[in-house]
Amino acid sequence: MVRQSLYIAGFSKELKLMLALIKKDNDSIQAFIKSSINWHVFLKVVKQHRLYPIIYKKLNDGFREKVPIEIMEQLRNLYQQNTFQMMKISAEMERVSVYLQEQGIRCLFLKGPALGYKLYGNLSMRTSNDIDLLISIKDLEKTDAILLQRGYQRDTYRRSVLGDWKWKNHHVEYIHPDTLHKIEIHWKLHPGRAKEPSFDQLWNRKQASSLSKQPVYILGNEDLYLFLMIHGARHGWYRLRWLVDLVDLSRQLTDWRMVKKMERKYQVSHIADQVNLLADGLLDNQLPFYGHATKKSYQLAEDALFLIINEIDIHDDQLSRRHSKRADEYYQSIMTKRQKLFRLIGALYPCIDDAKTLPLPRPLHFLYFPLRPFLWMWRQLV
């Protein structure tokens, strides 16, 4: 095995302390605690990466007396709030699962409480704000009607000129105005027309969650690993919780050859190498089949470090011009040729802004194709 080294000198002491706690590196933990740690910055870092349940438990179990009381109190409050939140989401997840299955709709839960329970055997050890579930696209309209009937309200971004939202997007969001529960209904695992298993294939490899008494299904281990890997890379590892999830899930995987076969089939080997480099460089965890990474994968890992250090959410519309350019370059670097092609097609395809700029009767909507460049230029000028 050839080990690759990542340059993490740019990481703050607070971020390094968080990583040392995750790795259970007691010598480094003691050294960082004795140094001039800014505990308020540390708390901000832990919250940013959504790792406060794990960090609270580790500090409380072995280093409680060496951390300022107010910091431990804030971590404890966050931990308790998350526990209550996860219990509420878990109950709603079970209700939604039962209701959809009663209506003959198959659904797979992607993250949330079911994932937290699988990885840690404890609801409170992972954070979540919503319920993500995957269905077959043929059940989309029926599922939409059911959620609306149950009081949920749909996000308005489904609007489109030529009914293109199903292939341009991969999920639609719902929120309940009374309970504030949020649900994301996915009909694809990933955006951008990425190659991925069919819903039937995923369903056939599913596993039942042991979280609830009622049937709740999640992705099979290998499918789940690939999903989390691509999801984390697509977001530039803005939250290191995703990398921690992958390392913990890797300990439950038994068919690594199937994982490698799927990585090649779905053209994500470069992302898998990036994960290997990050897991080893940040968490001292070498995953199976970790060998010599390609130049591209090493660059992807270095790019991810830049995003992590600068706390860049690559999907944030408010990024500075410099960071926006860097984020877009990173996003394009993880895309396959197929995804880049469909991204270009999507940019040329008419959008709802075109219809707002120049309203046309439905029979003439085809004219938005040749008019799109001119409508776009007009919006830049006015």
Please explain how this structure is put together:
56% of the residues lie in helices and 6% in strands. By secondary structure, the protein is mainly alpha-helical. Helix 10 crosses helix 13 (269-283), helix 13 (269-283) packs across helix 14 and helix 14 (295-309) packs antiparallel against helix 15. It starts with 12 loop residues before the first helix and ends with a helix.
What attributes characterize this protein structure?
single chain, 7 strands, globular, 18 helices, mainly alpha
The SS-based structural class is mainly alpha
Helix content: 55-70%
Order of helices and strands: HHHHHEHEHEHEEHEEHHHHHHHHH
Q: Give the averaged pLDDT, no decimals.
A: 89
Could you describe the largest sheet, including whether it forms a barrel? 5 strands, mixed
Large-scale geometry:
globular
Strand order of the largest sheet: 1-2-5-4-3
Low-confidence sequence ranges? none
Layout of strands and helices, then pairs:
Elements (H helix, E strand, L loop, with lengths): L12 H11 L2 H9 L4 H10 L3 H11 L6 H34 L5 E2 L2 H9 L10 E4 L5 H10 L3 E2 L10 H4 L2 E5 L6 E5 L12 H6 L2 E2 L8 E2 L2 H14 L6 H10 L5 H10 L3 H15 L11 H15 L11 H14 L2 H12 L3 H6 L10 H14 L1
Parallel strand pairs: 2-5
Antiparallel strand pairs: 1-2, 3-4, 4-5, 6-7
Helix pairs in contact: 1-2, 1-3, 4-5, 10-11, 10-12, 10-13, 13-14, 14-15
